[in-house]
TrEMBL record:
It comes from the Bacteria. The gene is ispH. Pfam families: LYTB. It catalyses: dimethylallyl diphosphate + 2 oxidized [2Fe-2S]-[ferredoxin] + H2O = (2E)-4-hydroxy-3-methylbut-2-enyl diphosphate + 2 reduced [2Fe-2S]-[ferredoxin] + 2 H(+); isopentenyl diphosphate + 2 oxidized [2Fe-2S]-[ferredoxin] + H2O = (2E)-4-hydroxy-3-methylbut-2-enyl diphosphate + 2 reduced [2Fe-2S]-[ferredoxin] + 2 H(+). Dimethylallyl diphosphate binds at H149, H182, H232, S330, S331, N332, S374. Isopentenyl diphosphate binds at H149, H182, H232, S330, S331, N332, S374. InterPro entries: LytB/IspH. Binds 1 [4Fe-4S] cluster per subunit. Catalyzes the conversion of 1-hydroxy-2-methyl-2-(E)-butenyl 4-diphosphate (HMBPP) into a mixture of isopentenyl diphosphate (IPP) and dimethylallyl diphosphate (DMAPP). Acts in the terminal step of the DOXP/MEP pathway for isoprenoid precursor biosynthesis. One of its GO terms (molecular function) is 4-hydroxy-3-methylbut-2-enyl diphosphate reductase activity. The lineage of its organism: Bacteria, Bacillati, Actinomycetota, Actinomycetes, Streptosporangiales. It comes from Nocardiopsis endophytica. NCBIfam families: ispH_lytB, PRK01045.1-2, PRK01045.1-4. The active site is at E234 (proton donor). This is 4-hydroxy-3-methylbut-2-enyl diphosphate reductase.
Length: 416
């Protein structure tokens, strides 16, 4: 098949259809699809019929049936109409992709599944707020910034009528706007008030707690050291609580160089999604410099961030490779990748199964799998399903904590 623009499409098999037996499902289709898409080949999905012995046709069929440890699993790509425009290029790419995946398929693997992983209570609440606002008020419901830093979550809500905007000036007067889980500065709240917007606040209560601390520490006359990453929305929101009294510190080196008006009056706060060990290092430097340093009663790094890091630490060393489901602007997800790498295990951030590269699995018999707090659990299931399509797979979950946290919804959306 030639798609508009002249390139020949590759048909990735969801199922292989032999002429003399039952159809063979292809759970790894997303993996082949992702590789072909990255290679710039247009992809279609559907059944691929296996040519019988001696068959000759216009298309090229690349296929293998693997022993899946009980059930068989297929891998297949068909370059339809191999004589069409761009067909040679598509066939070359299809052969390269097929053989790369074929090479890492057919060996038994285990997945070490970290628990807890995936959605936290603040993310579940934020998504439910947008869903309920859409149910109650209809589309459009405006959302300032990404409700959570996940491509799939944002795409799903957009499909259901949410309109994501970067700033409030893109929201028409009087309309409903949801503030994201990461929080906003007082200046943003004031602007929403001035513009008569109907605000529903999806800021995670654990982020709000940090804002409250920022105001409290600043009002007692302290310099507030905010440990976090510059430019992150949560950090911008927290900085905005007491901008003239707050300084951002991102590294131990910055902490070591920090000059403050009164070294006896210094407090610290942190972004909620930092690496626990790296943050402790910065706090240690600050405490050595400012022995009277005061901080939050308990750490500002939230329970979900801490639990996901602990869970991954428990499996990282035993894994040959780690996959972290999450988007690349998700701070807590990126911290998980870095944590695995600090444990000596190569780690990769993926939005879903289509991002997995065959070379990551070469020689990897144990694959550690986790997901950041904004990544839907269904994407983790999709990764496991795709890996199952490469051969026999055992999945073992290691649970290091059980999460029972639940946050109530804000008043405007509490009743359905
Ligand atoms: O980039 P973050 O990790 O702060 O946010 P993400 O990925 O949306 O995770 C959930 C929201 C966290 C807020 O603290
Ligand atoms: Fe709240 Fe923590 Fe989830 Fe952020 S990661 S939304 S602070 S529970």
């Amino acid at each position: 098949m030639t798609v508009p623009g002249g390139a020949t499409a590759a048909l990735v098999a969801d199922v292989l259809v032999p002429d003399d037996g039952p159809p063979v499902p292809c759970p790894a289709a997303d993996l082949l699809d992702g590789s072909l898409t990255r290679a710039g080949v247009p992809v279609r999905r559907g059944p691929v019929t296996l040519p019988g012995p001696g068959a000759a046709g216009a298309g090229a069929v690349l296929a293998a049936v693997l022993d899946g440890g009980g059930a068989s699993a297929g891998l297949g790509i068909e370059v339809e109409d191999a004589s069409g425009g761009g067909a040679a290029r598509t066939e070359e790419a299809a052969r390269a992709v097929f053989s790369a995946w074929r090479e890492v398929a057919g060996v038994p693997r285990q997945v070490l599944l970290a628990a807890p992983r995936s959605f936290c209570a603040g993310v579940e609440r934020a998504i439910e707020i947008v869903e309920r606002a859409l149910e109650q008020r209809g589309s459009p419901v405006y959302v300032r910034k990404q409700i959570v830093h996940n491509t799939r979550v944002v795409a799903d809500l957009r499909e259901r009528g949410a309109v994501f905007v970067d700033e409030l000036d893109a929201v028409p007067e009087g309309e409903t706007v949801v503030f994201s889980a990461h929080g906003v500065s007082p200046a943003v709240r004031e602007e929403a008030g001035r513009r008569g917007l109907d605000v529903i606040d999806a800021t995670c209560p654990l982020v709000t707690k940090v804002h409250n601390e920022a105001r409290r520490f600043a009002s007692r006359g302290d310099t507030v050291v905010l440990i976090g990453h510059g430019g992150h929305e949560e950090v911008e929101g927290t900085l905005g609580e007491a901008p003239s009294r707050t300084v951002l510190v991102q590294t131990p080196e910055e902490a070591a160089r920090l000059e403050v008006p009164d070294p006896g009056r210094v407090s610290y706060l942190t972004q909620t999604t930092l690496a626990v060990d790296e943050t402790a290092e910065i706090v240690d430097v600050l405490r050595a410099r400012f022995p009277e340093l005061r901080g939050p009663a308990s750490d500002d790094i939230c329970y979900a961030t801490t639990n996901r890091q602990d869970a991954l630490a428990a499996i990282a060393a035993e894994s040959d490779a780690v996959l972290v489901v999450g988007s690349d602007n998700s701070s807590n997800s990126v911290r998980l990748v870095e944590l695995a790498e600090r444990n000596g295990t190569p780690a990769h951030l993926i939005d879903g199964p289509g991002d997995i590269r065959p070379e990551w699995l070469a020689g990897a018999r144990s694959v550690g799998l986790t997901a950041g707090a904004s990544a839907p659990p269904a994407l983790v299931d999709a990764v496991v399903a795709a890996l199952r399509g490469l051969g026999p797979l055992t999945v073992t979950e290691y649970e290091t904590a059980r999460e029972t946290v639940h946050f109530t919804l804000p008043t405007p959306v509490r009743r359905r």
